[in-house]
Amino acid sequence: MGHEKHNIPLLQGLPPVAPRPLPGVVDAPVFFRRRGFWEGVLGVGLVWMMLGLVAMPSGVSFNPGKLYQGSLIVLLYLPAWCLALSRRATIWKGLLPLPAFRVFLLLLAWAALSLLWAHSRHPGDELSRLLSVLAFLLAWPIWLGDDERRGHRMLLLAGLGIALFAGGYCVQYLHHPPEDGRIVGEGVIATANYAAAVMGAACLWLALLPVADRRVSALRWLALPVLLTFIALTGSRSVWLALALCAVFTPLWHPGRAARWLAGVTLVVVLASCIWPLPVLVERGASLRPELFGQSVHLIARHPWLGLGQNVPFTLTVAGVDYTHSHNVLTQTTIELGLPGLLLVVVLWLMTAWLGWRHRRRMTGRLVLALWVYASVVLQFDMPQLLDSPRPSWLLVWLPLALALWLELRARADAADAPRLH
């Protein structure tokens, strides 16, 4: 009825108008919303986690200090969780089918369940420690992605940084030698065995990783004697034994004449040390390890199935001295998590070795095997805390597991892509 001429003009021809932001609401900077930004922060966090172990001051009983822990929340844990939950949780979908990752999650779940009978004063702190271990494990596959060399460069950088601190501690040792004559570091590694374990792990990275640049390779070969000197000054026999066994077993996963020569020379040195032991190797005896093991077994017998609970404090009294842990990863795990926890740890550790062996043709696989042999020896004598705040045991247990999971993840992805190429 003639209403057409009164219609409102169409808005399609008008230029778009940008919506005005609501008052009091500020958009996050663009770089905060970019995956590359969080990956960069994650890379810094992974390096800082390793360097902070040897550099940052500690709290009570050599626990990581608040400043170190706070920096890891910002640089490592938060980026790891953000990236793990982004892109429709792709990393979770890749890891969940892996049997080793499922066993790891079962271990975390059992440790969390044990808080019901642990009667901990701060159960939230224990849960946060479990989540931090999970974040560290997730961080490595996220950082590596499909580029194995990213992990190699990171470990190389961390190893050189650790060697730099080792050199500084050696200079400090010359000026102010301790009363017992054993060098230590600062913070978390303020005990000889803990410090030697970190330096020994860095030795393995630097010795195994391929370095194309001659200048960086020269730095690597300068760093190795510094680290070995530090280990010698600690007097840690378990670390020397672990490094020796790594050298002996190297031909199993690293074929070549150089590996066989290294294994042969090391075996001769070990046999000679057994026949004509140096005083430094025998003067401290067994360091009360058999007595500690006996006390641990008695404590395990009281709570064999459930254990005391995740991170419950206990005391072992040997020769009039109180010890707050068992100095052995297997007995420590059984004391806290019972026989089910011990079974999960053993299965997980064997699966780590199997994954490393399956992928021994890759450099990362050989690194997993070397760290596995090294940790299997060192953890029988000290550093038994697995599900705890950042400690040297993270580099000995969770690092090789994370690398092994990435190897299997990468292999499955390559196998899935193979049919598409044909």
TrEMBL record:
The keyword Transmembrane is annotated on this UniProt entry: yes
Membrane topology: Multi-pass membrane protein
Keyword annotations of the record: Ligase, Membrane, Transmembrane, Transmembrane helix
Pfam family, any one: Wzy_C
Keyword Transmembrane helix: yes
UniProt-recorded name of the protein: O-antigen ligase family protein
Native source organism of the sequence: Rhodanobacter geophilus
Listed transmembrane segments: 37-55, 67-86, 98-120, 126-143, 155-175, 187-209, 221-253, 259-282, 337-357, 364-381, 393-411
Subcellular locations according to the entry: Membrane
Domain O-antigen ligase-related, chain residue ranges per copy: 226-345
Main localization of the protein described in the UniProt heading: membrane
